[in-house]
Specification:
The complex is a heterotrimer. By secondary structure, chain A is mostly helical. Chain A is built from three helices and no strands. In chain A, helix 1 runs antiparallel to helix 2. The mean pLDDT of chain A is 88. Chain B is mainly alpha-helical. Chain B is built from 20 helices and two strands. In chain B, helix 1 packs antiparallel against helix 4, helix 9 runs antiparallel to helix 11 and helix 11 runs parallel beside helix 13. The longest helix of chain B is centred in the last third of the chain and has 32 residues. The two termini of chain B are 18 Å apart. By secondary structure, chain C is mainly alpha-helical. A two-stranded antiparallel sheet of chain C has the order 1-2. Chain C starts with a helix and ends with a helix. The mean pLDDT of chain C is 83. Classes of the chains: A mainly alpha, B mainly alpha, C mainly alpha. Chains B and C meet through helix 7, helix 12, helix 17 and helix 18 of B and strand 1, helix 5, helix 6 and helix 25 of C.
């Protein structure tokens, strides 16, 4: 079985990254934005794993890093959802446009 | 003597005030604290005289050095010469009077006395520091509490004034910071004042002296950066004005003087500019005073004019002129504190500071009025009171600077004694004497015992310098 | 040799009075303050007379300068210092006698006159302060020491003019007096700076010696055509002119009459106002040095004398008439001082001037005290409210007459001798000034007798009822009247200048005919116009309408001053400076703050609070950094 070339995997991760980016910029719903962020993170994860596998097959740092990111993403999701719930309690909405008090 | 006591005493008092319960406890603790300050400064003066009398010839006495931040060569280095001792005495006198005058403050008394005491700690620290960075540190300490003092306990447009004062003084500190970093990096990589002397390249001095001088100058109402003075003073509470005009403005004068003495050659190069600005401040400040209608504005503008003498003396930089500048700092400190104290007392009773509404107070409150007149006479330079001694020393010293332009500047500065007489007599004529301004004034009471004590304290200082100037003169000269 | 301690007491005792009565007078000495004050001055006057006796007849008959106290007060660099000195020289010794004696008389007189005054203790405290300062002034040996006491004298004058402080006019008059003399003192101060800088000392005797030395004269620096020393001397003279109410700085003196009348007698007639004369006389070598300065002194004095005499003829307030008369007599003293020859060889003017100062103190103080008695009697200052008082107040009448004769220069009263010497000095120096002096002398006789007749004759005697005069009021009157009558017989010039001829004028001789004659003419005219009530004064006034109105309004000098101060200084200098400060200088500061605020308002829109905007910035930033690091940085 011939290996999938690195470029293909990078193409997938880049696509994933920009999909996440697009979601982050266009959606106003915080949950969706959070999901977009997760997409971005995952695209990075794919990159790490792929580079690790293709460039330094003997090392494991990329994999470790991916594990860290997954863990932190989980924590971040928890915090973010807590914030979202609090925002919802205050604004009765989870639209980011409504939470624009933090300015000036 | 351990100079750090001068900083520790007010800080300990300030903390003790925080733990006090009840207004009277706060008052008495503060009073005890400032009395200790006065005692310490008197002891310092006596010990200083004794050391000098014993033939001690080092410039700085009672030095103490402790490393603070080694990598940048910053140290807590303190020591005094005659000039600092005189300024410390002034601070102690003004503080005691300020606490006595604030006896009847009723709103947030704890915080008020706390801030006042912190201010005084900053002032003492400033006057004893021999490390410019520490100096700067204490300068800042003595700015921030002023913002709160004016903003909380002030009157009139207090927020505006507090903001203006804090911003302009901060601007001054920023210039000072630039200047001191400049001389730090351009030469010896030290902030130590004695070590810096003679260790600086002329180029760096030329570049950074204006920063330091203007920066400190803002504190002492250097034209055209004097506009915080009228607003700040008029809005501040009585004790705040007293400390502000009596001590804070002197921080600037002291700083300017130290910088000029540190870099005399460059100070001489810049002296024409300094002299022009100070003569403008003197004459124009006096004219502006003439047109004011609010007693506090009158005194604030006259402070601009009088502080011009300090800068003039520093600008002329002859031995006598510099001594005159120091005398003027002390004299103006006592006199203006007395003035603000009496204005505060009058305001407390009549609820107005407008000259037009007052009048004939001598009949109603003889003590306050008499003290007011004495402060006025001191301001217009009556012999026998301290103002005369200071002004005359400045004039004599200035005249010793050769050159017709310098003589012309001196004559212009002398001319202000006439304008001063005009505005002081106008103020006394309309406030203290003449027909009683309002029939309600007849029911007003004269000074309370604390106010009497404060007045007597400051008047004693003024007369002691005015009648026997030689002791102070020698203290400074040594 | 005198014991210094006693001499120091002469000025110090009145100071003790000031401190004691000023601090505790109201509480503890409400009744006895007058006695305390008077007692202290009595001791001080006795000491002064003792010192004068000792100085002239025992210790220093050759006019030596004795420095009895020398205390360093404030040292400057360059060898200059203000010292508290007491120097005995002929002139100061005469002055302490005059000052302490007149002060004693006024203290005594006030015991009766000011009785019942609520601020009795304060009054005596102020008198003590004045006496102290004036004695300090005349005993001073250091130029700056004179300035110190000079200012203190001005301050006590301010306090005493404004003694009735609830009268707005008194407050205004006190303010005016202080400010006008302060303005003149500015000249004095700058003069001191110049002289001390040139002479390198503030000690007067050393200063005069240095400036007089040929070596210094050769190295004279000049400025605008006059030598610097001459400038200094002129400026010091301006100071003297202000205190001595010479034209054009005289405007404060008539207003100063708002003070209590005994104060006018002491300060504004006999002692303080002659301080300027004293100053010029004390520094007379300095004035004799240069050709221009004595001319200034001469003409200022003569012009003031004439001007004041003309104004005095038209005034109706008796204290104001006396004030202008004072100004005129001081003008006399001053122009006598101005008759120096450049080399300082002819001292007649100098001795005559001091002599006149001495006699003037007696008769002018007497006139004022009499005026005080009269004013108490009729409760008015205006001449029209008086008349026919000669029976009602015989003692005052006689005293007033003596004083009038003395001031008019009728022999053998004291004024005759001194005035005669002055006129002789003027005759020798400058014929034009002599003519002015002579004419003034006639005017003096006229206006003094105009006053005399208007007060004591003029109307038929209506109120023959005599008021008993308080003992303390009559004693000083009698003593001063004796002085005014006989002081002229003292061989005065010999005291001032040892070796001078006893009477330079030579008593009643050919020279006296003109002055005495013109004085008699003046008296005659006054008698013709005012002895009986008639319309003659009115007719004369209308016939000289222009001059009369002009003189009645004091030549509008006050109005000129008002215009300059109110319109020009206040409106064109003061108000603009205050406005500029609030609007331009402060506006600049506020403008800086406002600009900062505006810029930040522009920038703060970036801080929208929208998360997605921030993400965009973040993304663009990252992209930018990526571009930089990938393509440019490598």
């Amino acid at each position: 079985m011939s290996q999938v070339p690195l470029t293909h995997i990078l193409f997938v991760s880049t696509a994933l990254f920009f999909i996440g980016m697009y979601g982050l910029f266009t959606r106003r719903n915080m949950i969706t934005m959070l999901m977009s962020v997760e997409l971005i993170l995952n695209s990075v994860n794919i990159n790490f794993v792929a580079f690790n596998k293709y460039l330094y097959p003997g090392a494991l740092e990329g994999v470790f890093f991916t594990l860290f990111i997954i863990a932190i993403a989980a924590a971040e999701a928890a915090v973010a959802i807590a914030i979202i719930i609090n925002l919802y309690r205050n604004f009765r909405s989870i639209d980011v446009e409504d939470a624009d008090e933090l300015k000036f | 003597m351990n100079l750090s006591l001068l900083i520790i005493a007010p800080l300990v008092t300030a903390v003790a005030v925080l733990f006090c319960r009840g207004l009277s406890g706060i008052r008495w603790v503060s009073l005890a604290g400032v009395t200790v300050q006065l005692a310490l400064s008197l002891v310092l003066a006596v010990l200083y005289e004794k050391e000098r009398g014993a033939g001690e010839s080092a410039h700085w006495l009672f030095q103490y050095w402790h490393a603070w931040f080694i990598p940048l060569n910053i140290a807590y280095h303190v020591g005094v010469d005659g000039l600092s001792v005189a300024m410390i005495l002034l601070t102690a006198f003004v503080m005691l009077a300020a606490v006595l005058v604030s006896w009847r403050i009723d709103r947030m008394g704890k915080e008020f006395f706390f801030l006042l005491l912190v201010l005084s700690a900053g002032a003492y620290g400033f006057f004893i520091s021999l490390d410019i960075f520490t100096l700067f540190f204490f300068l800042e300490i003595s700015v921030i509490p002023k913002f709160l003092l004016i903003g909380i306990w002030g009157s009139g447009r207090k927020e505006y004034s507090a903001m203006k004062l804090a911003l302009m003084l901060m601007g001054g500190s920023a210039l000072v910071l630039v200047g001191l970093l400049g001389i730090y990096t351009s030469g010896a990589y030290t902030f130590d004042l004695p070590a810096l002397g003679g260790n600086l390249s002329l180029h760096a001095q030329r570049l950074f002296f204006p920063f330091l001088f203007v920066g400190f100058g803002i504190f002492t109402a250097l034209f055209p950066f004097h506009t915080w003075v009228p607003d700040g003073h008029s809005s501040a509470p009585t004790a705040g004005s007293m400390f502000l005009a009596g001590v804070s403005m002197k921080l600037g004068g002291y700083g300017c003087l130290r910088m000029a003495l540190l870099m005399p050659a460059v100070a001489r190069e810049y002296s024409p500019y300094i002299i022009v600005l100070s003569v403008i401040a003197i004459v124009y400040g006096a004219f502006a005073t003439m047109m004011q209608n609010d007693l506090k504005y009158i005194n604030a503008y006259s402070s601009v004019s009088h502080c011009g003498f300090i800068l003039l003396g520093i600008g002329m930089l002859t031995e006598t002129a510099v001594r005159g500048a120091v005398l003027q700092m002390i004299s103006h400190g006592l006199m203006t504190a007395l003035f603000f104290a009496t204005i505060g007392m009058i305001y407390d009773r009549t609820h107005t500071r407008l000259v037009a509404r007052l009048g004939g107070l001598l009949k109603v409150m003889p003590f306050i009025s008499t003290v007011f007149v004495i402060a006025g006479l001191c301001s217009l330079g009556l012999p026998g009171l301290s103002g005369f001694v200071a002004e005359v020393t400045v004039f004599m010293g200035s005249w010793q600077h050769p050159g017709q332009m310098y003589h012309l500047a001196t004559i212009l500065a002398c001319a202000s004694i006439v304008i001063t007489a005009v505005y002081i007599l106008r103020a006394t004529g309309a406030t203290v004497i003449g027909p009683v301004g309002d029939s309600q004034y007849y029911s007003l009471k004269d000074a309370t015992w604390t106010e009497r004590l404060a007045g007597i304290l400051l008047v004693t200082g003024i007369i002691a310098i005015g009648v026997a100037p030689f002791w102070l003169n020698e203290l400074i000269a040594k | 040799m005198p014991n210094a301690a006693y001499i120091v007491l002469i000025p110090l005792l009145p100071l003790v009075g000031f401190v004691l009565l000023g601090l505790f007078g109201k509480k503890f000495f409400r009744k006895s303050s007058g006695i305390i004050g008077t007692g202290l001055v009595l001791v001080s006057a006795a000491l002064a007379i003792w010192v004068a006796y000792g100085y002239f007849f025992e210790w220093g008959t050759d006019g030596a300068s004795l420095k009895v106290l020398d205390m360093r007060w404030l040292a400057f660099s360059g060898g200059l210092s203000i010292d508290m000195n007491i120097v005995l020289q002929p002139l100061p010794v005469i002055m302490i006698v005059v000052v302490s004696f007149i002060s004693l008389m006024v203290h005594l007189f006030s015991l009766g006159y000011m009785k019942g005054e609520p601020r009795f203790a304060t009054y005596y405290a102020y008198l003590g302060l004045f006496t102290f300062s004036m004695l300090g002034l005349v005993l001073a040996g250091n130029l700056f020491e004179i300035y110190i006491f000079w200012e203190l004298v001005g301050c006590s004058s301010y306090l005493l003019i404004g003694f009735y402080y609830d009268r707005p006019t008194a407050v205004a008059a006190a303010k005016k007096a202080f400010i006008v003399t302060r303005f003149a003192d500015l000249g004095f101060l700058v003069g001191i700076l110049i002289l001390s800088f040139q002479g390198r000392t503030l000690d007067m005797d050393n200063l005069l010696q240095t400036l007089f030395s040929p070596a210094f004269q050769a190295s004279g620096v000049s400025f605008l055509g006059m030598s610097v020393v001459a400038w200094g001397a002129t400026l010091v003279f301006i100071g003297g002119a202000g205190k001595s109410a010479l034209f054009p700085l005289h405007i404060w003196l008539p207003d100063a009459m708002e003070g209590p009348t005994p104060v006018s007698a002491l300060i504004h007639a006999a002692t303080m106002v002659v301080a300027g004369v004293y100053l010029v006389a004390r520094l007379y070598l300095l004035y004799a040095l240069n050709g221009v300065v004595p001319q200034i002194v001469l003409y200022t004095g003569a012009f003031s004398a004439l001007l004041a005499a003309i104004i005095a003829c038209t005034q109706t307030d008796i204290k104001r008439v006396l004030a202008y008369s004072t100004m005129s007599q001081i003008g006399y003293m001053m122009f006598a001082l101005g008759t120096f020859r450049p080399a300082g060889t002819d001292f007649l003017g100098y001795t005559a001037s001091i002599f006149h100062l001495f006699t003037h103190a007696f008769f002018k103080a007497l006139l004022f005290l009499c005026a005080g008695v009269i004013i108490h009697r009729v409760h008015s200052n205006e001449m029209k409210d008086m008349g026919g008082l000669r029976k009602a107040m015989p003692l005052t009448h006689i005293c007033f007459l003596v004083a009038c004769l003395a001031i008019s220069g009728i022999p053998p009263f004291s004024g005759f001798f001194s005035k005669e010497e002055i006129l002789l000095a003027a005759w020798r120096a400058n014929k034009f000034v002599y003519a002015m002096g002579l004419f003034t002398s006639g005017l003096t006789a006229f206006y003094m007798f105009r006053l005399y007749f208007a007060v004591f004759w003029h109307r038929p005697v209506t109120d023959g009822h005599r008021h008993p005069m308080p003992f303390f009021e009559s004693i000083p009157l009698v003593i001063l009247a004796l002085g005014a009558a006989f002081a002229g017989f003292i061989p005065f010039s010999r005291f001032i200048l040892p070796g001078a001829p006893e009477r330079a004028g030579g008593g009643i001789g050919v020279f006296s005919i003109a002055p005495v004659g013109i004085a008699l003419v003046g008296i005659g005219i006054a008698a013709w116009l005012y002895r009986k009530e008639s319309d003659r004064p009115q007719r004369v006034a209308t016939s000289m309408r222009g001059l009369y109105t002009f003189a009645y309004h004091k030549f509008y000098i006050d109005e000129v001053y008002l215009f300059v101060t109110k319109k020009i200084i206040f409106n064109l200098v003061g108000r603009p400076s205050a406005w500029i400060d609030r609007n331009i200088v402060d506006g600049l500061m506020n403008g800086m703050a406002a600009t900062t605020a505006r810029i930040s308002a522009g920038i703060k829109g970036v801080q929208s609070g929208k998360v997605q905007d921030y993400t965009w910035f973040f993304f663009i930033g990252i992209a930018g950094l990526a571009v930089i690091f990938i393509y440019i940085y490598t």
